[in-house]
Every structure is written in structure tokens, then in C-alpha cells.
Specification:
The structure is a homotrimer. In chain A, about 25% of the residues lie in helices and about 30% in strands. In chain A, strands 2-7-4 form a three-stranded antiparallel beta sheet. At the A-B interface, strand 4, helix 2 and strand 5 of A face strand 3 and helix 3 of B.
């Protein structure tokens, strides 16, 4: 079985941010030489998420605002933050959106619908995806 | 490595609908001849979801109603809908329920608990799963 | 292709409970002899979830409390419970958090960030993961 692992590093500037990593992932799929298989894109940080969706700025705004409703940032409401962290909400948002995505590789290409792409975000600081 | 890809197409009649695709997936697993491996069922549309759960009409009703609470349809509240679409809520619901499911194949069969099955839905128009 | 399947059984004592299964999964990865591949940890019960996150007691408390907001237990509000069950909320929580997790195996080890681990929980009675 062919396999190929690559780590991506990102430095986010804001507490919560979405980054389109589709080109990176497509590039690694090409380097891998895999024709029929699976691409696993997995967050390396538990307050980050990976998801497949539309790269449309209005939707990205909606996602970030919606997550504030799903798990309000409000550090005072979470016991986790008594450890000295303030990011309990980022963990809960990551549980909602998901930790990883796996996409079919068909005929050497990522096989998802037109207009879809991978994104990572919803977290703190550095994320790594392989 | 053995691999087998198949696309399923559905035409939904309502804005939000759940379809049980377990028999389709089980049939493709059988055709694939895979004895030990993984079945990836991935939505081809970013406002659709794939999930494993119970085929019970009361629960399906509950899921659809619950999603209205998770991300209200209300087109006016989302920036995405300024693009001329009205389905921002379907994107957010898909982020919640998930874009794909991967299930073990053990001894040639989908290996999940009794009473479980794949479903797709929560979206607009056509979905494709492979 | 090398493959290795193992079932884990848990008897939970409370209606909703989180169990850290990281050591179990790491042990099975070692037994499998897989050096480069994928570890799929899939719930065998549709009211259970598997997720990757931090083993920190405050966060676990926050997760359980947060899920009560995502889908309140309140049996009277769900049609599913007219079947004689009372766990519709556990199904909805499982749809939110996710049914399975897949993690890269790199150089023979589970490849996720420092401080991450697998957990299962959010359900009723027995869960099985393989």
C-alpha cells in the first residue's frame, strides 16, 4: 500500500480563523501518486477543526458567528478554564465541526463536489494537518 | 489494495430530507469483494450530510426538528444568502452532523451495531455518495 | 494490506459518561504491526460517540454540561421516545460529536498532537469500538 504523510503548519492571527487548505491537500495527493484511495486530513490540535465546505466569505462569516452561538466563548462559564486556559469553547466547537475529514481519491484527484474544499480553523494558535 | 468507487444520486423532494442508503452501501461493499477494510461514504454536496443512526420515523422527525434549532433556516440572518442562495443553514447543519462516515468492513460486511444504518440528507437537491 | 480489528466493551454506570480509551487504541495499533496507515475507532452503538480531545476533568465536565444544552435530555420533547425508549437526546448528541474517529498511524504510532487522546461516551449502556 502506498502512503504519504505531510504536515502543514499555520500561524493564525485571530482567536478564531478559517484557512482554505484545499490547494495544499490537492498538491500532496498529487505527490503521493495514489490513484484510488483515501486522503485523511486530521487536525493536530484539539481546539482546531478540519471541514469540507464552500470558500465563500459570507458563509465563513456565518460559520464563525454561528459557532459563537453553539458554544459561547465566555471563559467564565467553563471549568476547563480554571486550569489557566481560556479556550474551552474552542474545544466544544471542535467537537461540533469535527477533528478530521477523509475524502476519496479517485483517478488521482480529490473526489468531492464542485465548489467544495477543505478548511481548517476554529481554534487557537498553530494547527498541523497531515 | 482493492478499491471500489460507486456514485449514488438522489433527488430529494423537500428542503430537508433523510434517506436510508444502508442497502445501497452494503450492496457496494459486497460487489467490492473487500473482506477487511473501510467503507467511506462521503457527501458530494456541501449542504448534505452522511450519518449512521437508527431508521426510526420518530427519531427522523426529531433529527429534522432539532436541526432547525441548531441552525434556524431563517435566510435573513446569514450573509451567505446575500449571494442569492438561501441555504446557509443547510451548510451549518452539515458541519454539525458531518460530511462523511467511515465504517469498518469485517469479514466482508459493514461492521456496526445492530439497528444502525447509513443515512444521507439534511440538504438541498442532489447528493452523491461513493 | 495489513488489517487488525479488535472490539472493546464498556459498561457505563451513568446515563452519560466519558471514558478515555487512548491506551487501548495505542495498544491495538502496536499489535497490528501497521507502520503507515489509519486507525479507525468506530462506535458500535448509535447513541455513543468517539472523539479526540483533552483528558482534563474540567473539560469533561464542560462537555457533558454543554451537550445538555445542545440536545436537552427531556424525554417528553422527542417522538423517538414514544417507542418506549427515553434516549432520543443521546442520538442527537452522538450526531453532533460524531460516530467515529480516524487517526493517522505514522512510524507505528497514533499521530496526533501532544495532549490529545481518544474518548468514547455520551451514551447509554455498552459501547464497542474496533
Amino acid at each position: 500500500m502506498k502512503s504519504h504523510t505531510h504536515y502543514l503548519w499555520f500561524n493564525t492571527k485571530q482567536r478564531q480563523e478559517i484557512i482554505d487548505i484545499t490547494e495544499h491537500v490537492a498538491g500532496e495527493v498529487e505527490k503521493s501518486g495514489v490513484r484510488e484511495g483515501l486522503a485523511l486530513v486530521s487536525a493536530m490540535h484539539i481546539s482546531a477543526s478540519v471541514f469540507v465546505n464552500d470558500h465563500e466569505s459570507g458563509l465563513w462569516h456565518d460559520i464563525l458567528e454561528w459557532l459563537e452561538g453553539i458554544a459561547p466563548w465566555d471563559p467564565g462559564r467553563y471549568q476547563h478554564n480554571e486550569t489557566g486556559e481560556d479556550n474551552a469553547a474552542a474545544h466544544l466547537r471542535s467537537l461540533t465541526v469535527g477533528h478530521e475529514v477523509i475524502v476519496p481519491i479517485t483517478a488521482g484527484k480529490l473526489d468531492f463536489g464542485r465548489g467544495s474544499g477543505f478548511s481548517t480553523g476554529n481554534g487557537t494558535a498553530r494547527g498541523r494537518s497531515g
